[in-house]
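Holo model, nicotinamide-adenine-dinucleotide. Inputs:
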Amino acid sequence: MRNKVLITPKSFGAYKDIAYPLIREKGYDIIENTLGRTMTEDEIIGCASSDVVGIIVGIDPLSARVLEGCRQLRAVSKYGMGLDNIDLDKARELKIKVDRAIGTNNVSVAELAIGLMLSLARSIPYVSHRVREGAWDRVMGCELFNKKLGLVGCGLIGREVCKRALGLGMEILIYDPYIGDDDIFNNSNIKKCDNIDLLCRESDFISLHAPLTEETRRIINKDTLELMKPTAILINTSRGELVDEDALYQALTENNIRGAAQDVFSREPPGEDEKLLKLDNFILTSHIGAYTKEAVEKMVAVSTKNLLRMLEDWESTQ
Ligand code: NAD
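Output:
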């Protein structure tokens, strides 16, 4: 019996004609996620417990229980960048290799972040909605030009946002404790912040580009929101859990900040009664950051290549 590879991301199917032959050529059969949604832990274990050696995974949960339950699993290839849905300690313990699709979706996510900044600065979704209702009223906006953009996390996506924001005439503040004396700071319009409080106090726009870790969980909370300017705009295209959503609701309803836009949420999709979705100064998109033709094409190619390389490495040691 041939070993199998499980592929969970829904959008992978768009380019399967390129990826599937490569996987089959290497001797693996393919199991697809045909549910049209993210798989649950039990669903993954249900189809991958016995002969799946590799998984190309989206945001589906690869918890310790799942990794233990997939008894032949040797390699996990993330179809994207955030590894927060994979229990990396357990993977290490079980000697399951893990890699991610570096450099595939940074431009797409950065463009969305800039788009969300402009959407809120000019209230585009709200005004468009009002026009459809028959109104022709106006909301005074603000320019991005000459404003300060605070980036929390400045890796591949943060750097693409930075380039575009400089082009719009913004000044950049960066809080990222893991980049040292980086060349990026040679530009006089880019300054380093040693702590997030300073970034929150000084920025007109704040955009989150750090991974979800124990350090970054709820890094935007009641305290950090209170430091922000009443005109501040918060953008989160990283992970929902970086923001304390109750504290954000309070800040938005009490006008402690001007607006917030997220591409991610603590619970995706959010519940029907989600209170943030009732606010005109809150925008939520459905985790579309990496969902462009260009990024999907690259994520399929790189995640497939990564998986086959990791499986080949493993086989060579057998
Ligand atoms: P990256 O690894 O290139 O960069 C992450 C940066 O965050 C690094 O520079 C790191 O030093 C920094 N960082 C780590 N801990 C930090 C902390 N405590 N405070 C501040 N900075 C910290 O990753 P990337 O490609 O830029 O992606 C960033 C995140 O964006 C991913 O982890 C993922 O969660 C999210 N993402 C979302 C989408 C989407 O569809 N919305 C798509 C891709 C990635």
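Residues 1 and 51 are 9 Å apart (CA to CA). Residues 4-102+293-316 form a domain with the Rossmann fold fold (CATH 3.40.50.720).
Archived with the compound record.
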